[in-house]
Write a structure and sequence with these properties.
The protein is an all-beta fold and 115 residues long. Strands 2, 4, 5, 6, 9, 10 and 11 form a 7-stranded mixed beta sheet that branches. The chain has a 4-stranded antiparallel beta sheet with strand order 1-3-8-7, with no helix packed on it. Strand 9 and strand 10 form a beta hairpin. 30% of the residues are buried.
Length: 115
């Protein structure tokens, strides 16, 4: 089984930056598609960014150009570099690992952007 642990969330002013990390353990995730999702208060969970094992990336329109997803398979870690943060980026951010029909989630890390 894969376990995912996120870190790096916090409180930041608008225009600032944060880097989220997601460390996986239990089973190697080098062949997995890894992703970041978020859920804002009162809203549904939404895709932020994904990265395949070939390091093909995909972003939501709302974060493209501001956020960057990357992975370091040697460290079993996926990162989300978030720049030019906006108050509407405030949400709980979740890491996701997916391989065919197998899918696992982390516990989440809170990001709060003040105006």
């Amino acid at each position: 089984q894969v376990q995912l642990v996120e870190s790096g969330g916090g409180l930041v002013q608008a225009g600032g930056s944060l880097r989220l990390s997601c460390v996986s353990s239990g089973v190697s995730t080098s062949g997995y598609t890894m992703g970041w999702f978020r859920r804002a208060p009162g809203k549904q969970r939404e895709l932020v960014a994904t990265i395949t094992r070939e390091e093909i990336t995909r972003y939501s329109d709302s974060v493209r150009g501001r956020f960057t997803i990357s992975r370091d398979n040697q460290k079993s870690t996926v990162y989300l570099q978030m720049n030019s943060l906006k108050p509407e980026d405030t949400a709980e951010y979740y890491c996701n690992a997916r391989y065919t029909f197998y899918c696992v989630w982390g516990q989440g890390t809170q990001v709060t952007v003040s105006s």
